[in-house]
Each structure stands twice: as structure tokens, then as C-alpha cells.
Amino acid sequence: IKSFLGYFPVADIFTSINSALWYFTFILFYYLMFPIVLRRNQPLFSAFIMLLLGYVLTRLSLPVTKDLLKLYQLHIFLFPLGMAFAWLNGKKPGVRFQEVLLKFFHKPILAGVTRYLIVAGLLFAFAYTAVHSGVGKGVMAEQLSSIVTMLVLIAAFLLKNVHSELLVIFGKYSYEIYLLHWPIMYRHDFIYKYLPASFGTLFYLVFFVLVGIVLNKFVRKVLEPGAVKK
Predict the structure, then answer these.
(1) Which domain holds residue 81?
(2) Do 134 and 169 have their domain in common?
(3) Which of 72, 91, 110 is at the close of a domain?
């Protein structure tokens, strides 16, 4: 019954196969509050209110384990930041940034080179913060590192107006990948035992995408048999 209601109070992979679903309970709160809080003419203020609600909620004595509550506290910025970046993306920052560079340098070549250098610097910062993630140094350090890593990567894509079919595929099947990676890697890890971390990670990405595609099609066939037949 708890699972059908979206209530998963434990995130312990060793005791619950559904532990990866802890995030569903967390994000369900934001989904329920989003249509109430959102003001289309004040998107950034709406994002701030969502952040404030998340902060207040995760400071209450919730009926979840202490470890799960820490995960909630670690992720309170994600949904509000998503709202903020959705607003920013609509402003076409890459186009405006290019216009600013053209006005400053007056030559398209110099503007283009500068733009690529800035994007390259952002990607380097992303790689650095991804390696030096701050894991194990406390909630604040982990949260700050995660936010910086995400911000510089999104900034690079917004400024360059990059479109990647590979990232589209990862995005399309990201939820399936998320659901699968936790139980498989923690309980049945069979790749990192035989391959270096770099090749093992690459193999796992391909593996999870393929399994995610199969799972996605299976779920659609079960839930929408008429739509799939068409």
C-alpha cells in the first residue's frame, strides 16, 4: 500500500530492493506544490518559494530514516534550480552572449574563439568538480560541489547552444537508468570487478541505456497496449 501511495521511508539497498524509489516520495512533494506555487509572471520568485518550502519541510521531524532525511536535505536545490534554468533557457542566453561578444570584439572570429575558450573553461571546471566531489565531507560540501558541477555544465550548454542526440537519449531513459543502476551496481556488480573504472563506467552506461529502452517499451506495452499497437 505504501508503494502505491508513493511512500518510501527507507533508502537502504541492503534491506529494500525499492530503496532507489526514495526519490519518488521526495519529488512527489514538489510535483504537488508546483501548480500551486508557480506564477508565470514571477518564475524566479516561484522557484525561491519552492526552495523555501523544501528547506522548511526537510527541517521537520518526518516519518523517514535519518539517512533518508539527509538525502532530502542534500537535494532541496534541484527542483527550484530546474525551474530557474527553464526560465533562463527561454531567454536564449547563448544568442545574447554571442551578441555581447560581437559588440565587444567587433570581429566574429575573435568572438567565436572567446566563446569556445569560455565554454572549454567551464567544461574543465565541470571535470574538476566531478573528480573532487566532496563526497564524505558532509552535507554542505557535497551539496555545494554538486551544485557547482551542475551549474558549470549547464552554463556551458546554454552558452554554446549545444544539441547532443546522445544526451537526449540519456535524458529520455534517465529514470529507467536511475531505477536500475542502484540495485544492480550495489547488489550484483559484475563489471568493476573485471574492468578499470573508466571502461567499467562506459560499459555500464551502454548497458543501462539498453536495458532502460527495453524496460520503457515493456512498461508502455503494459500500460498503453492500444497506443503501442498503433
Answers:
(1) 1-91
(2) no
(3) 91
Q: What is the pLDDT of residue 104?
A: 82
The CB-based long-range contact list for 86-95 (8 Å cut-off, 24+ gap) reads 86/43, 87/43, 87/44, 87/47, 88/158, 89/158, 93/158, 93/159, 94/158, 94/159, 94/160, 94/161, 95/161
Q: Do 101 and 61 fall within a single domain? A: no
**pLDDT tens digits along 62-84:** 888 888 888 888 888 889 988 99
Residue 225 in this model has a pLDDT that exceeds 70: no
Q: Do 87 and 97 share a domain, yes or no?
A: no
Give me the number of domains the chain comprises.
3
Domain-terminating residue out of 46, 66, 91: 91
Q: How confident is the model at residue 34 (pLDDT cuts 50, 70, 90)?
A: very high
Question: Could you tell me if 183 and 226 lie in one domain?
Answer: yes
Please list, in sequence order, all residues whose beta carbon lies within 8 angstroms of the beta carbon of residue 104, skipping any fewer than 6 positions away.
111
